[in-house]
């Protein structure tokens, strides 16, 4: 399936609207996320590998904020436990529609993939089934900060012993020098991937009210408050990181 190059912010906009996961974003999303998130392809592929260690027979594997289902596809490629089912959830109708098309294409190319259910729903009001793996890949940062602990608590309650939550996020840093350096390096990463100063500045205005990164320390203490017993960072590239949280 072809994907358009991301030029959403290439022309000067009179007013930059708040970022939304709408049809325009869906059209360019694979290109946008690869060129904006350092380490994204490595995180997605390895998420499948990690999940294979925690997945248990006859349980649900959740991909929360699935977008176009990149993580769902990795779970289906790597997890071999009997009776597992992937549940991909997103509240953007445009994402869900295109996600279903991508997964149908995956079904037609490979045999013996895990069954998958794609739901258009708000993860904040989801009734979780007992799960062995839950992935939140760059989704929690878009949930209102005041609602993050409750969501993580409900995920923790749904997780079976031996399972895991895998949480990937853009990080903020309490130390000003560390924040400035990693932010500058992230902007260099975007420039190296062909984004202009205008695109970088307009994207920044678009996401500043809707995407609120936390520090690693905030993630760790909130995960513990939600009932997780252990938090293990397994990947960081510049200001983007991924954590394994154990029940
Ligand atoms: C940055 S994208 C996630 C990328 C995707 N997980 C991947 O690895 O390719 C964030 C996604 O979360 C979804 N989202 C944000 N808040 C949500 C909510 N409350 N319920 C369901 N989906 C949500 C958005 O629609 C968007 O598709
Ligand atoms: O931090 C930025 O500048 C980003 O563009 C990050 C980010 C993300 O982390 O989700 C924001 C929106 C898009 O979904 C793709 C990338």
TrEMBL record:
Q: Which domain of life is it from?
A: Bacteria
The entry marks the following residues as binding S-adenosyl-L-methionine, namely 40, 65-67, 90-91, 122-123, 137, 204
Q: Which GO terms describe its molecular function?
A: transferase activity
Q: Where does the Methyltransferase domain start and stop, copy by copy?
A: 63-163
Key words of the record? S-adenosyl-L-methionine, Transferase
Q: Give the top-level enzyme category.
A: transferase
What does the sequence similarity comment in the record state about its family? Belongs to the class I-like SAM-binding methyltransferase superfamily. Cx-SAM synthase family.
Per the entry, what this protein does is:
Catalyzes the conversion of S-adenosyl-L-methionine (SAM) to carboxy-S-adenosyl-L-methionine (Cx-SAM).
Query: Which named protein is this?
Result: Carboxy-S-adenosyl-L-methionine synthase
């Amino acid at each position: 399936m072809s994907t358009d190059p991301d030029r959403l912010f290439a022309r000067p906009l009179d007013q930059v609207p708040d970022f939304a996961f709408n049809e325009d974003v869906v059209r360019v999303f694979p290109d946008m996320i690869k060129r904006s998130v350092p380490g994204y392809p490595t995180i997605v592929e390895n998420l499948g590998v990690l999940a294979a260690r925690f997945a248990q027979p006859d349980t649900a594997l959740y991909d929360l904020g699935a977008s176009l289902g990149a993580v769902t596809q990795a779970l289906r490629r790597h997890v071999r436990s009997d009776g597992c089912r992937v549940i991909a959830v997103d509240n953007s109708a445009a994402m869900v529609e295109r996600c279903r098309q991508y997964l149908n294409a995956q079904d037609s190319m490979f045999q013996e993939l895990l069954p998958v259910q794609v739901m258009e729903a708000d993860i904040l009001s989801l009734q979780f089934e007992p799960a062995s793996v839950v992935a939140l890949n760059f989704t929690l940062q878009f949930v209102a900060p005041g609602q993050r602990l409750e969501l993580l608590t409900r995920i923790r309650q749904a997780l079976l012993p031996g399972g895991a939550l895998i949480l990937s996020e853009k990080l903020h840093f309490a130390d000003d020098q560390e924040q400035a350096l990693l932010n500058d390096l992230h902007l260099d990463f975007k420039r190296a991937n062909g984004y202009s100063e205008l695109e970088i500045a307009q994207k920044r205005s678009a996401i500043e009210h809707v995407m609120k990164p936390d520090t690693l320390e905030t993630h760790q203490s909130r995960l513990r408050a939600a009932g997780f017993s252990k938090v293990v960072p397994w990947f960081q590239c510049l200001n983007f990181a991924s954590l394994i949280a154990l029940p």
